[in-house]
Amino acid sequence: MKNILITGATSGIGAQIAKTLSKKNDVFLSGRKKLEKVNYYACDLVDMFEIEALYNKAIEYFNSDIDVLINCAGQYVYKPIEKMSFDEISYLLDVNFKSAYILSSLVIAGMKKKKWGRIINIGSISGVVGEANASLYSATKSAFSGFSKALALEVASDNITINTINPGWVDTPLTKNALDEKERQEVIDITPQKRFVEPIEIARLCEYLILDCAKGVTGQSINLCAGLTCGC
Question: Is the pTM of this model over 0.85?
């Protein structure tokens, strides 16, 4: 059983990861919603003090160091670059990447002490192929690739792995609300497997990456996209 901290765990991909991993592990969750759970802390990941509070709450709950960190929190803004406000730029950078970087810096000492650890970043296919009118979102998700490679090298001798999962179009409530039937069909038409990725697929990949038998997988960006990045 591992001690796992998951951000963005109240809906969609994060909620499925939490549900799947909690079956065999002890999990501590965070999100923006207010929930009365002993293993949950509502926080604003824009605030560094809140990030530190989240880390401390998780340590207090586990009464031990964190074995696995899954950075799943993220926000999406669809807007041409010239219409992005300074506040939106700062917010997206903070939530999508800076918070993950800070949390990683906080958990890494405990992982080094144990000589075991896993950090999994949930990126996006938009960080691999780019997305018009979502350049900042794409940039924040693309940052995980370089981060994972560099940090993986830094901690390789400590038996700690760092990886990024890049989902394609995922069948979540957020996606269902954002797309009408015509748009959903357009997504299916351009996807080689002619379907949306299911959240359970991402959760199962996380489940594998935290196993000891996955210790050779590190510094990788894994595209779980139903073939969307393979080309025409």
Answer: yes
